[in-house]
Design goal:
CATH topology of the largest domain: FAD/NAD(P)-binding domain
Pathway: Siderophore biosynthesis
Number of helices: 14
Low-confidence stretches: 421-435
Protein name: Lysine N(6)-hydroxylase/L-ornithine N(5)-oxygenase family protein
Shape: globular
Organism: Roseateles amylovorans
Mean pLDDT: 93
CATH superfamily of the largest domain: FAD/NAD(P)-binding domain
Radius of gyration: 24 Å
Largest sheet: 7 strands, mixed
Number of domains: 2
Structural class: alpha/beta
Cofactor: FAD
Strand content: 15-25%
Helix content: 25-40%
InterPro entries: FAD/NAD-bd_sf, Lys/Orn_oxygenase
């Protein structure tokens, strides 16, 4: 069986950036053969947060924090070169913004991904990653994936990078409604809301950017649904993007965070938590405030802002879903019925643990080194890198585009140190065959 130098799980922004870094890291006159890298993506084609591509949504991060610029400003994969190739550079300049629409940035990412079509397999979901022992030590990894027809494929690799993104965080009260189409996470918003064209009363649970964007999207729909915006917080707080605070997203701040003790890291995460979580753009907050102000002027209550409320119970009823809400200000409980409920409740970043469960005996507590590589026991030779799952050790920027370009260069460097390549390009053969 063919042995890859690297298999990447997922082909979102993080692994696209890595594919770019690997290509650009090969010197033109080098006698070394390029790394043999293959990426496996479960979606049938590239799309980035497809169910949150709302018409008026914009990026919260500067376009300069794209897939390549901070690592290599002269790269052909920069957002500016994308604009040049699409013949829109001058028009974009005239917009006078650092924040393109989410639709345009998705198109940029798709443009970059398309240039690696020969190195990515779409429509396959990873089933498991198994150790491949040789001589009493683990030399390779066996990656098993399943395609849309149910066929299982097996591939061997010397090293692995996991870039699967976050999984929807579902509050405990809603976990029994996984199969109920009336309750859905914001990551499924556009597809799910299309199934409720006649919904008249909806609830949004959450206080972040997604909750705010969905509220304004529902407000602008011609059906004029009534929407309750439910959150524990007293107010919607804006993200702090002032210059000194934004320094925490600089690449060199990653070194600082990683060098701190566990308690110091926790303090840093707590101090700057609102720069990334439950923190919509100020302009979006102002739009929401104006919606509620105009309601007061008109003397009509279409939407409600249920601040300082928490969901304590969820019940399916004949004509919808009933929430039990605890008013924390007045210490009273009410019940409300909704046609649909949107959970804008964020994401979990631990999916790699389930994917790598068969390797757990070699990986201990899933700790990573500075180069995002999981620490392993002696005799386990593959390097396994995590992208977007190292916030606790590397800082708040880890789940964002902020360090994506720099991180891809660091992982590339660590890979080059880990991979011993034969200049002639010969490969070993595995004693086992694919299923």
């Amino acid at each position: 069986m063919h042995i890859h130098d690297l298999i990447g799980i997922g082909f979102g922004p993080s692994n696209i950036a890595l594919a770019i870094a690997l290509e650009e890291g090969q010197a033109p006159a080098s006698r070394e053969r390029p790394l043999d890298a293959l990426f496996i993506e479960r979606q049938p084609g590239f799309v980035w947060h497809k169910n949150m591509l709302l018409d008026h949504a914009h990026m919260q991060i500067s376009f300069l924090k794209d897939l390549a610029t901070l690592r290599n400003p002269s790269s052909r994969f920069t957002f500016l070169n994308y604009l040049h190739q699409k013949e829109r550079l001058q028009d974009f300049i005239n917009l006078k913004t650092f924040f393109p629409s989410r639709h345009e940035f998705n198109d940029y990412l798709a443009w970059a991904a398309a240039q690696f079509a020969d190195r990515c397999v779409y429509g396959e979901e990873i089933v498991e990653v198994l150790p491949e022992p040789r001589g009493g030590e683990v030399q390779l990894l066996r990656v098993r994936s399943r395609d849309a027809s149910g066929q299982v494929r097996e591939r061997l690799t010397r090293h692995l990078v996991v870039g699967v993104g976050g999984m929807p965080r579902i509050p405990a009260e809603f976990r029994g409604f996984k199969e109920d189409p009336r309750v859905f996470h914001s990551s499924h918003y556009l597809q799910a809301i299309a199934g409720h064209p006649q919904a008249r009363r909806l609830a949004i649970v959450g206080a972040g950017q997604s909750a705010a964007e969905i509220f304004m999207d529902l407000h602008g729909r011609p059906q004029r649904p009534q929407v309750d915006l439910i959150m524990r917080a007293r107010a919607i707080k804006p993200s702090d993007d002032s210059p000194f605070v934004n320094e925490i997203f600089n690449a060199d701040f990653t070194d600082f965070v990683f060098s701190r003790s566990g308690s110091e890291r926790d303090d840093l995460l707590n101090e700057f938590w609102h720069t990334n979580y439950a923190a919509p753009d100020l302009a979006l907050i102002q739009q929401i405030f104006e919606v509620f102000y105009r309601q007061r002027v008109a003397g009509a209550e279409r939407h409600r802002f249920l601040r300082r409320h928490e969901v304590t119970g969820v019940k399916a009823v004949e004509d919808g879903v009933q929430l039990t809400l605890r008013d924390l200000n007045h210490e009273r409980t009410t019940t409300q019925r909704y046609d649909a409920i949107v959970l804008a409740t964020g994401y979990e970043r631990d999916r790699h643990r389930a994917l790598l469960a068969p390797l757990a005996p070699y990986l201990g507590d899933f700790e990573v080194d500075r180069h995002y590589r999981l620490r392993a026991t002696p005799g386990f030779h593959p390097s396994i890198f995590l992208q977007g799952a190292c916030e606790l050790t590397h800082g708040l920027s880890d789940t964002l585009l902020s360090v994506t370009a720099i991180r891809s260069g660091e992982i590339r460097g660590a890979l080059r140190g880990a991979v011993s390549l034969d200049p002639a390009g010969t490969r070993q053969e595995s004693p086992r065959q694919a299923a």
